[in-house]
């Protein structure tokens, strides 16, 4: 219907164009002479003849001058001579009636029955001329014949009263066509077995209607049902095959890949995807994955070795920080003993210093035995006893079975040195004690080292800094030793070792160190 309306609208524009902008039409309206009229008429005839092929859905354009009873009718070649004569005769009568009337019947296309056919007319009046076009309803409905609506189906142009504009062999007595302008589709017939689909024209009071019997709508249903059943059975039969193919080509390779990824996620970086028969895409994925894991393992080894090397260098640096700390005080003690010519103590002091520095020069090792560390501590305490006579005592206890236990070097001396530095006074002797015990918590054995003194203990500020893991600086100087030991324990043991400091009762500082214990195999 939209296509028909578009064609009618195009023809109407041509009519309006002739009436408004065509110079020859103006000349025919008010000619200065008969020759001018005939020349203008000829030009209009040639123009319409040349352009009418552009309007295939319109049968004819015409121009009528009532005063001279002159009708110019340019028709399509498909219009027969007899039809054209009949229409021209009817048009002249109809246009003469309109010339005597004050107004045209409508401003749209309207229906006029001529002979046995119905025609659509569109007429406008331009001064003394009637300009218009007509088309047989059969011409407009022609393209609908290409649509198969069945033996008892048909496409019709219907008037607003429900009267067909084209002849049909259908028993229209059983079909109600009067609802075409009101409803787009409805059922009609004696048994409501006929579907009527209609669409009203926007260019006139008529509609395009398709009459479709139920049997035509359902005529292909058995074939469609058979086709659906055949497709359903085929799909059901192919489902197991597709599932098997999907399982073999997609799920199995994916499961292998996921299994290897889970193992790698657990830390087993040495596993790889084995070579199995698979699609080219999965073979590429497997090969790329194996290459990537090889590269990751290689990088992980390099990074691990680099971290070990870095930790080794940092550990040696931390240990070397302790070496020069004691040197100047030792020389001062020897100088004092030489002044009083106490050669026995000088020999004793020198021997202790030799042993002390021999141990210090090999302290770049990561671990020493507990027995070696204790011998070094005894040397250190002896040197300090010579430095502070009658002001220092020390008691060290450890089980013999722990003698070969490996611990970081200078671990005990650091805290003894810190206690002597901050705890020795002239008023009251300082007592130091070191104890070792093997303990067990949640089936994890550990060595507990407790270092106590009877000095003034830690200040609250120092304890807060120790718990925060910062370097400690107070009015007595920088406590680099505690930070040093904590850093070395972290590098050597990670989270398996701990260091805690607090004040004892009634006074004094207490240091507790826990180291993981492993029996020698």
Q: What's the structural blueprint in terms of helices and strands?
A:
Elements: H1 2-21, H2 23-29, H3 34-51, E1 60-65, E2 70-75, H4 81-99, E3 110-114, E4 117-126, E5 129-136, H5 137-141, E6 154-159, E7 185-188, E8 194-200, E9 206-213, H6 214-217, H7 221-265, H8 280-320, H9 327-339, H10 343-361, E10 368-369, H11 370-387, E11 392-397, E12 406-407, H12 411-423, E13 430-441, E14 444-453, H13 460-468, E15 472-474, E16 477-479, H14 480-493, E17 498-503, E18 509-516
Parallel strand pairs: 11-13
Antiparallel strand pairs: 1-2, 1-5, 3-4, 4-5, 6-9, 7-8, 8-9, 10-12, 13-14, 14-18, 15-16, 17-18
Helix pairs in contact: 2-3, 8-14, 9-10, 10-11, 11-12
Summarize the structure.
By secondary structure, this protein is an alpha+beta fold. Helices cover 47% and strands 21% of the residues. It has 14 helices and 18 strands.
